[in-house]
Write a structure and sequence with these properties.
The structure is a single chain. The chain is of the alpha/beta class. It folds into 2 domains: 220 residues, 3-Layer(aba) Sandwich (Rossmann fold); 96 residues. Helices cover 48% and strands 15% of the residues. It has a 7-stranded mixed β-sheet with strand order 3-2-1-4-5-7-6, with helices on both faces. It is rod-shaped.
Amino acid sequence: MERLQTGKIGHELLELEHRARYLFAARLCSEKHVIDMGCGTGYGTAILASEAASVVGVDCSEEAIDFASNNYDLENVRFFTADLQDESLPSILQEVRPGGFQVVACFELIEHLEKPARLLQNMKSVMSPDGIVLISTPNISNPSRFVDGDNPFHVTEYDFERFHGILERYFRAVSICEQRVHLAATISPGEASRRDNERWPREVGQPKYYLAVCANDEKFLPSMNELVLLTNDNHLTLLHRILKELRSDVALKSRQIQLLNERVQKDEELLTEFRKADNLLRRLEKIQDASISAASQQKSMLERLQNELLREAEKARKYELQLKAQD
């Protein structure tokens, strides 16, 4: 299964996408008891823990849980291994949090599972009566899918209708947010802050991810503000370096194409000369064939004349013998 480990060079934009979801969720976790289902290496669990009263991180990978436990050993965080599709999971978590969790987070997991319905049922079972579920998945309709190609780790992929449809089977209230991923540039006075009612311009086109907020009733759905998370300078530096390398590569490829075109032109000129020589050779072969045919005919005629002379000589000899016999 795919797992994000933060801090890897070249994964800055992917990390930005994942962090944005957890930062969005953290706003809704203030002083609440939270569970991060499919927590992976635990970086997101730690983000939730910065606001929550407590967070439980659960994942099916022992290796991921070991990494999370060793790297995010926080007082209000607990990690353990479990199968999120197991029917016994709610009873296990009931012992951990008898009253249920006020926030149940599950990001970029449902598309990996063969039994998404079991995951959703477990999420509903461990959520407190007034709690919320936060769940996200990539949008199969986003054009980047056709650039990146099919993901071999995905079992079931979702567009808006399919995602909303499966969620409303388990939750009476479903509100789906759209996540878009773009580079951004800002100019802000040092002490200025944006007013709460100001919003960033909405981008056009298909969102890359959907993040749903679900509850047992609409009255439990929280108010949500838009989140804008900017890429860092290291990422921009990397992008500039990649762009510079791409430009250099384009220049090199352009020069190679030019040389190939010149070679093709020379080859075409040689081919033209070859065709001329080939035509001349064919004409010579025809002349040679005609000469051979004429010589063959002359030889046949000569042989015929020789045979006729031999026959006439034989007749003359026989006639001479007859004359001698008469004498």
